Amino acid sequence: MVDRVLVTLDGVVRDPEEPSIHADDIGVLRGDGVFETVLVRDGKACALELHLARLRRSAEALDLPEPDLARWRSAVETAAKEWGSEREGTLRLVLTRGRDGVEAEQGTAFVLVVPVPDRVNKARAEGISAITLTRGVSVDLAQNAPWLLFGAKTLSYATNMAALRFAARMNADDVIFTSTEHRVLEGPRSTVVIQREKQLLTPPARSGVLPGITQRALFAEAEKTGWECRYESFFTADLITAESVWLLSSVTLAARVASLDGLKMSPPDCAEEITELVERGIARQWKLSDWTS
């Protein structure tokens, strides 16, 4: 059973042990590029069309050439098929600006599949512990300074990874970022959703958060069953008073926050329903991706 699958945009399955990135690639030198992370389940990429659309938007924000979505779609399907249907996988679509100073450089593009991290199954089953950390910026910054690329999924993830390492030193699993106004933003690799009775809330994109694929799938499914779903700014204190807090991401899917800043948070009666809504929403997007492709 393979532990890594690498496919380039020409559809060729490459040896993942062989070098594939030049030392002067600007994605390596400066983090100048974009990516998407997709769950592979039953040999197929979940919610692929939503991820491809977000990849295109991120590339546009960085003034990268418009991605050829048909080629990306084909490469993803090849990689997922090579990975197989016996286990889940983490699939990444990576696009960089290419080599520094090389004329007519078209960029570096590839699809990589690796095993799902061990932390994922535990987070799904038991929930996670999280701490709140300030991002040190105002919610107005994304609109006032679009060149800072809030809301784009770029390769510049050093700050996010540093926050997660800090959380680990504090014996926490994850982080919820907040603004200077104490408004909730997002996690380093997740979207924040709070639940109050039959209402689900998530911060709006205008606050500088990355639009969530799994959150979007949840809202689409939940609204069909009578939930009120809203994009609305809320404060750190609202995390404490909510009936439940969730971190949603493309690989973990739904992780309930079981403790926040050391405060235990009991599961609500609807916890199982929310998890099921996420699963159904992702499954529905999966079928839509099949239909679209």
UniProtKB/TrEMBL annotation:
It comes from the Bacteria. Its EC number is 4.1.3.38. One of its GO terms (molecular function) is 4-amino-4-deoxychorismate lyase activity. GO terms for cellular component: cytosol. It is an enzyme of class 4 (lyase). Keywords: Lyase. One of its GO terms (biological process) is carboxylic acid biosynthetic process. InterPro entries: Aminotrans_IV, Aminotransferase-like, BCAT-like_C, BCAT-like_N, Class-IV_PLP-Dep_Aminotrnsfr. It holds the Pfam family Aminotran_4. Belongs to the class-IV pyridoxal-phosphate-dependent aminotransferase family. This is Aminodeoxychorismate lyase. It comes from Nocardia pulmonis.
